[in-house]
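Data card: per-record layout.
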Amino acid sequence: MSDSQTAGPHQAGSQQAASQQAGSPKTASQQAGSPKARHGTADSITDVPGFLVGHARVPGARALTGTTVVLAPAPGAVAAVDVRGGGPGTRETDALDPRNVVERIDAVVLTGGSAYGLDAAGGVMAWLEERGRGVRVGPEPDQVVPVVPAACVFDLGRGGDWRARPDAATGRAAAEAAGTEVVQGNAGAGTGAVAGGLKGGIGTASVTLPSGATVGALVVANSLGSVLDPDTGALYGLRGRVTYPEPGLHEAASKRLDEARATSGLPPLNTTLAVVATDAPLTRPQAQKLAGTSHDGLARAIRPVHLMHDGDTVFALATGDTSGEPLSPMELNFVLAAGADVVARAITKAVLAAEGVDGPGGTFPSYRDLYGS
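The structure for this 373-residue chain is written out next.
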């Protein structure tokens, strides 16, 4: 299913009426009278120049978890974070407060394994230290302390082994695997992700703005809330004209999903994570604003969101040269709007790319298992 397909016959009338009332959806740039933003070349966070993404999975037949690292180009990126879930698991996020000393960072780690999995950041720190990357704390080139913010999702036991968790070796493996091609679905920190009972995973998306700036997002969709409309089966994050599943197919899919939820014994612990990157010249306070408004993308694609058993966290990274004129408020608005757009689309892409899992840790059907492609 894509967001450009035509509505099914049983939905056409209601969609036509809605479009007559509200008009077609418009991006922020269209509403402001600017040319429409376009998808990035690879529709990936790595469309932002210099950014790389690496995944690593914990080995073992009963392991269903892993780690993902987002590497910024040297000399690092201006960074910020916004945490809105009630049960976050994070590391080094205080360093990103604009009032504090660290100006740029080299990597962000997203990991499974709940709080245990935050150990993966240590492997990325060691990998960066070996390359002389980090905050300079002495006169010698190797005297650095890499600041590696990290956040975790809850996926403990989803493969059947409660003690299968990412560690420093997993983080190092993810850093070593980093490149421009981003595998989506069951990869890295999305290996054991589940979104409202459906199999979740990794997703990525990007846009190029009329100004030439690129904004990209990478998400781990692992939400307590649902990603699909219970009345129609359509994914919340889809935009434009949508093909809705036939009622009979949706009824059967809903029954299968309810059965899977009942047999999985999932604790109500989740978390959706995102990294939003741009080559726009953002200051640290502006990056903080981008991290905050990008949460709107979570709210569009997941309902409800930011619950007490979610740890929803968004990082923002910016590499543009801030030595010149700062962005005007209107220019910043386009970047902020794009951040929310790419996060919502990345969540949808994660769910559509995911493959269902039926194993000792539970049954987690994918959207494609239930509704087809």
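Known properties of this structure: The chain is about 30% helix and 20% strand. Residues 1-34 have pLDDT under 50 and may be disordered.

See the next section for split statistics.
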